[in-house]
Amino acid sequence: MLSWPYRAMALAVLIAMGGMALGAGAVRRPNLLHLHADDHRADGLRALGHPVLKTPHLDRLVARGTTFTRCYTQGSMIGAVCLPSRTMLLTGRSWLRIPKPRERVPGIPPLPAVLARAGYETWHAGKGSNEYQAGLAAFDTSLVMNDPGNQRAGSSQRHADAAIRFLRQRPKDRPFYIYLAPPVPHDPRLAPKEFMDRYDPASIPLPPAFLPLHPWDNGEMTVRDELLAPFPRTADDTKRQLAEYYACITCLDHHVGRIFEALAETGQLDRTIVVFTGDNGLSLGEHGLFGKQNLYEFGGMHVPCVIAGPGVPQGKSDALVYLLDLFPTFCDLAGAPVPDGVEGKSLKPILDGHQKKVRDALYTGYRDCMRAVRDDRWKLIRYPLVDRTQLFDLQNDPHELENLAGKPEFASKVAEMTALLERQMRAYGDTVPLRVANPKPAEWTPPPTRPKPR
Ligand SMILES: [Ca+2]
């Protein structure tokens, strides 16, 4: 038995160690509330720099937490970018190593199973299609909330109502992990009139990289999402679609605010880490594109990522991160061991202030027609099937307006970034060739009549 002064010293050391391990203000085994929007652009909140959007509740989350400004889903081998994105999230595996929707990765339980084993009550509500079914099946409760009939406008409210009911009735002896993933602001973009009325299409600015047509064939010009707008894209139609998109986001924000109120009412706000992300981006007129089947910064793969709660500092991180990093991050926050074979990297060392970054470069891919890599400043996009390359200086050209790849003074930078891309592809088992024997002509003219989106 230690005498009093030694006991006091030992206690002080234990407290100091606890503080080091958890970060100031942190709680042991916090609740995890993951709000996962659908097709939500990386700039899709007022607090993330959007000039027109009204998102007061999520803006407050940004104000009190850490925003990862360079978060991406890694890629997609199909037009439904949602599916591999959500599978990566719940398996921690990279895009070419994910399982089929109803299968598990041998040796890696899905994220909810890992958290359940660590003592968490796991609860999901969200869309059922283009989701990782084996992951949803591992939740203690999984509510698949497909919109009845044409009632998409009420989707945000129905999802929030379900989450609030759970918060009020849940077992109080365990922390919770909520995965709330409504199909919002995915099309059809419908919100109640009070939200639609808040955006006048005439006063919506066009996106910075708006073009009537993409200048050449990127290999995926008539996929479903690209057929949601006329060719060539018009200012009026684009503004109308943007107004609808913003109305859906403001409606989502309103109901997220109700969830935050319920957290406060039930005494859980200071025990809950809230994570807000989107599953993929959306072009909505940028570069002449409308979908998520491309690798531009304000296009398919770049997503919002905000983490706020006890022990999480206020600020911004420009670390290069993937959505699949959330798997080990959630494990770390919950005190659960990260299963071997998870490829994501925990962001907790960044939140704790121990690290500035988790990787030096970040690569993305789409089918066999696009590959991209970026570092802190430069980004290269390669289109093997039409033998085109783009090089952007993101520091001076964040909207990717000027392609530097053809300029002789950037030839060595193109070679350097191509080599970086090849190394990244090797690391992730990606064998798609960056050059093909007989590339197609890159010129493209839109179909004379627009096919119906499937
Ligand atoms: Ca999506």
Structure overview:
Helix 6 packs parallel to helix 8. With 454 residues, the chain is an alpha/beta fold. Helices cover 28% and strands 15% of the residues. It has one domain: Alkaline Phosphatase, subunit A (3-Layer(aba) Sandwich), CATH 3.40.720. The N and C termini lie far apart (74 Å). It has an 8-stranded mixed sheet, sandwiched between helices. Bound molecules: calcium ion. The site of calcium ion has 6 residues, from loops.
Task: Give the secondary structure arrangement, pairings included.
Blueprint: H1 4-22, E1 31-37, H2 56-64, E2 66-68, E3 71-72, E4 75-76, H3 82-91, H4 111-117, E5 121-126, H5 133-136, E6 141-144, H6 155-169, E7 176-181, H7 193-196, H8 235-265, E8 272-278, E9 302-303, E10 305-308, E11 315-317, E12 321-322, H9 326-334, H10 348-351, E13 362-366, E14 370-374, E15 378-383, E16 388-393, H11 411-427
Parallel strand pairs: 1-7, 1-8, 2-11, 3-12, 4-13, 5-6, 5-7
Antiparallel strand pairs: 2-10, 3-9, 8-10, 13-14, 14-15, 15-16
Features:
single chain; 454 residues; alpha/beta; Alkaline Phosphatase, subunit A; 15% strand; globular; disordered N terminus; binds calcium ion
Major β-sheet profile: 8 strands, mixed
Spatial shape: globular
What are the secondary-structure elements, in order, as H or E? HEHEEEHHEHEHEHHEEEEEHHEEEEH
Percent range for helical residues? 25-40%
Predict the CATH topology.
Answer: Alkaline Phosphatase, subunit A
Report strand %. 15-25%
Number of helices: 11
The strand line-up of the biggest sheet is 6-5-7-1-8-10-2-11
**Helix/sheet category:** alpha/beta
Provide the gyration radius in Å. Answer: 22 Å
The unreliable regions are: 1-22
Identify the bound ligands: calcium ion
In CATH, the homologous superfamily goes by the name Alkaline Phosphatase, subunit A
Mean pLDDT: 93
